[in-house]
């Protein structure tokens, strides 16, 4: 998860894409192409990755966050969820 204001940095051609793809492959063996990105980006080993804390009930956490927050993304998600 990336803060909304940094979204452009992680889009398909953003400057962080190579780092995120390599990390996803190394940690989870996942990529959109279902194969290794092929190379480790320069400087990757100097990055400290931080993860979200685990929650016993992730669905309840997400529901509480959606109820608590009021921004453009959350309002869009509310609309989608309410239509489902």
Explain what the structure shows.
By secondary structure, the chain is mainly alpha-helical. The protein has 2 domains: 1-51, no CATH class; 52-84, no CATH class. The protein is 46% helix and 0% strand. It has 4 helices and no strands. It is elongated and about 40 Å long.
What's this entry about, in short?
The chain has helices at residues 7-10, 17-28, 58-68, 72-83. It is an all-alpha fold and 84 residues long. The mean pLDDT is 88.
Supply the key terms.
4 helices; mainly alpha
Order of helices and strands: HHHH
Mean pLDDT: 88
* Major β-sheet annotation: none
Number of strands: 0
Fraction in beta strands: under 5%
Provide the gyration radius in Å: 16 Å
Supply the number of helical segments.
4
Total number of domains: 2
Could you list the spans in which at least 5 consecutive residues all have pLDDT below 50? Answer: none
Shape annotation = elongated
Terminus-to-terminus distance:
23 Å
Percentage of helical residues? 40-55%
Structural class: mainly alpha
């Amino acid at each position: 998860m990336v803060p909304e204001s940094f979204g452009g940095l992680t889009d398909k051609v953003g400057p962080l894409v190579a780092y995120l793809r390599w990390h996803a492959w190394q940690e989870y063996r996942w990529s959109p192409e279902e194969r290794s990105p092929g190379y480790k980006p320069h400087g990757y080993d100097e990055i400290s990755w931080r993860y979200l804390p685990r929650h016993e009930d992730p669905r309840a956490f997400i529901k509480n966050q959606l109820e608590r927050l009021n921004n453009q993304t959350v309002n869009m998600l509310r609309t989608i969820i309410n239509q489902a």
